[in-house]
Amino acid sequence: MKYIQSSKNPVVKQWKKLLTKKGREQSLTYIVEGFHLVEEALKQDDTVIELILVEGVEMPNKWNSDGIEMIQVSEEVGKALADTETTQGVFAVCRQKDSEAINESKTFLLLDGLQDPGNIGTIIRTAEASGIDAIVLGKGTVDLYNPKVLRSAQGSHFHLPIIKGDLSEIIPVLKEKGIPVYGTALENGKEYTTVKPQDSYALIVGNEGSGVSGEILSLTDQILYITIYGKSESLNVAIAAGILLYYFKNGQ
Question: Rounded mean pLDDT of 235-249?
């Protein structure tokens, strides 16, 4: 097993670039941290390129690392790579994968300009749990492979197609396929329970502060809202997405 001691090693510098969006886009790879995420990555065919273990950390016997380069690193290197305060000392460099989600899916969740990585990861995890077919990350939405997104999603990004796209171009394609598109906003809409769920649909949730943009809302078939019974102005977007996704799923 190869051993790297210094955080100034060129290989380590390349790994550290994967903590930035630019580095991930240039290499079409990303890095996951922690036993759970690495284990989920190892379950996917042709995904993990390198497995990185801090000295003293042992790989679980149940992990299949056949054909994967394994590298042991010092604690110094582990701290340089970590995006958590207390790292578990295990990382994996993974390949980004393309998806043909539009052609194969019937139910969609579209994200319009979401900025909080924790919200996005939670939404991905909830969407996968609720059985959504595909997620589309619109313009202005934080990168899927942001470490905080990955950590919040807890590996759910491995289990469903997630693509990047221009929602103003994707929505007309969905409508041409006969898929109703629902926007979300507190004004000019219907209470979500008045809409009968269908086998195919696309649901849009928007930016934490400004919501779904007016341009995107104008392209939808219907705007939905969730009634607020207390004095709060709105729900957290991840909570709202969960309510709507499970309503549509359970009503089918």
Answer: 96
